[in-house]
Write a structure and sequence with these properties.
GO terms for molecular function: 3-isopropylmalate dehydratase activity; 4 iron, 4 sulfur cluster binding; metal ion binding. There is one protein chain. With 421 residues, the protein is an alpha/beta fold. The chain is 30% helix and 19% strand. It is built from 13 helices and 18 strands. Strands 4-3-2-5-6 form a five-stranded parallel β-sheet, sandwiched between helices. The protein has a five-stranded parallel β-sheet with strand order 16-15-14-17-18. α2 packs across α5 (134-143) and α6 packs parallel to α7 (199-208). The longest helix is centred in the N-terminal third of the chain and has 17 residues, at 68-84. 54% of the residues are buried. It binds 3-isopropylmalic acid and iron/sulfur cluster. The site of iron/sulfur cluster (SF4) has 11 residues, from α9. 3-isopropylmalic acid binds next to α2.
Length: 421
């Protein structure tokens, strides 16, 4: 898939290891990188965006601003957008990847460069999405092009079906366990799943690919689900018959059970049911449901199904942040937010929230957090002595009810307050 997309978009056949120069359809800049991006454009390149409509700035990582310097950087980003005509998604619109997908700014066959590592997410709609630093992003904005070394591909085939209580997040964590945290460095993870996964589920899978070091995470479009792409799928995004891969992995969804990634590496993945009694009994201080990995409407509904009529355990706090304003609206309309609020969740403004430990839920030394995000390295969500466990929204919600790591079935017997919120 990577070879074909980069060949067509570069106008000549390229193979793994070749250099490709390709047209860029969308350049995405996040708040945290905006200042360096602007500096590269103005000071180093002395350029303006070649195609302003192909550049989007998203204020999402620390939104609303937490300090004066963050506020100043965001002010400069707004002014830059107004002066150059690039698109601006301001505070409250949501997390960059979710917003670009909702706005149709990632489409099958597109090349989308983001100043954010989780730009692999766009592979959910067969777009070649990848993250780059401020300098490369600025060059792409100034020239409308970028150069890439064409990645080798790893083939991941999903068989069977997700069982009740098991989600795409569990499949993604299992994939990372099998590949390893550096198992797909600068490779394209090409996922073959037929029509097993919805658009949101494919986003979760493609999102996690960068945690194996991948350059891109491409889901091969398949089956009945092709309608949720929103745009035509060109024939040339499909892998060539007889394509060769550097590695092939098969994941059986029938056998998959809820997974959890334990500190401090994303590929330290375990079966939740098989965790030691000590870990299952450990007090959990904070549960966070949200992020570009699992902050979509289906994720909030999954959490609400577990939390409905129940309360967050005393001594545990539950933070829930929808990935975008659109998700927030859907969750308002269908009552999901009310269920979550009544269960005792603290609801936040759409954005990244505490995912990378900069605001809205930073962890103290020794605290334990179960999060639906994608990273759990030392210091990710606050103090270096805090611990982050990664799981699905259902496991996170069950954990909030029990105050310790739990499976959705563990809370079935719990009705109403567990000691009172
Ligand atoms: C701030 C941004 C550059 C960073 C990333 O690149 O991924 C962040 O989104 C993260 O998840 O750590
Ligand atoms: S939600 Fe987390 S992982 Fe996603 S872009 Fe924001 S900080 Fe990065």
């Amino acid at each position: 898939m990577a070879e074909r997309i980069l060949s067509v978009r570069g106008g000549k056949p390229v193979y793994a290891g070749d250099l490709a120069v390709v047209e860029v359809d969308q350049v995405m800049v996040v708040d945290s990188i905006a200042q360096s991006f602007i500096e590269r454009m103005q000071r180093d390149l002395e350029a303006v965006p070649k195609y302003p409509e192909r550049v989007s700035i998203v204020i999402d990582h620390v939104a609303p601003a937490s300090t004066v310097s963050v506020a100043q950087a965001q002010k400069e980003a707004r002014e830059y957008a107004a002066a150059t005509g690039v698109r601006l998604f301001d505070v409250g619109r949501g997390i960059c990847h979710q917003v670009l997908m909702e706005e149709g700014l990632a489409r099958p066959g597109w090349i989308v460069l983001g100043s954010d590592s989780h730009s692999t997410t766009y592979g959910a709609v067969a777009a070649f999405g990848t993250g780059m630093g401020a300098t490369d992003i600025a060059l792409a904005a100034a020239s409308g092009k970028t150069w890439l070394r064409v990645p080798e591909s790893v083939k991941v085939t999903f068989t069977g079906n997700l069982q009740p209580g098991v989600s795409a997040k569990d499949a993604a964590l299992e994939m990372i366990r099998v590949l390893g945290a550096d198992g797909a460095t600068y490779q394209s993870v090409e996922m073959h799943a037929g029509d097993r996964f919805s658009r949101g589920e494919r986003m979760t899978l493609a999102n996690l690919c960068v945690e194996a070091g991948a350059k891109a995470g491409l889901v091969v479009p398949g089956g009945e689900i092709l309608t949720d792409y929103g745009y035509d799928i060109p024939e040339w995004v499909y892998p060539q018959a007889g394509a060769t891969y550097v590695r092939e992995v098969v994941l059986d969804l029938d056998a998959l059970r809820p997974r959890m990634s334990a500190p401090n590496e994303v590929d330290n993945v375990h079966d939740v049911a098989a965790l030691s009694a000590e870990l299952r009994g450990m007090h959990v201080d904070q549960v966070f449901i949200g992020t570009c990995t699992n902050g979509r409407i289906e994720d909030l509904r999954e959490a609400a199904a577990v939390l409905k009529g129940r309360k967050v355990a005393p001594g545990t706090r539950l933070l829930i942040i929808p990935a975008s304003s659109q998700v927030m609206e859907q969750a308002m309309e269908d009552g999901t937010l009310l269920t979550l609020q009544r269960a005792g969740a603290a609801l936040g403004t759409p954005g990244c929230g505490p995912c990378m430990g900069r605001h809205q839920g930073v962890l103290a030394p020794g605290e334990v957090c179960v999060s639906t995000s994608n990273r759990n390295f030392i210091g990710r969500m606050g103090d270096k002595d805090a611990k982050v466990y990664l799981a699905s929204p259902a496991v996170a919600a069950a954990t909030a009810v029990m105050g310790r790591i739990a499976l959705p079935e563990d809370v079935l017997a719990v009705v109403g307050a567990v000691g009172g919120y």
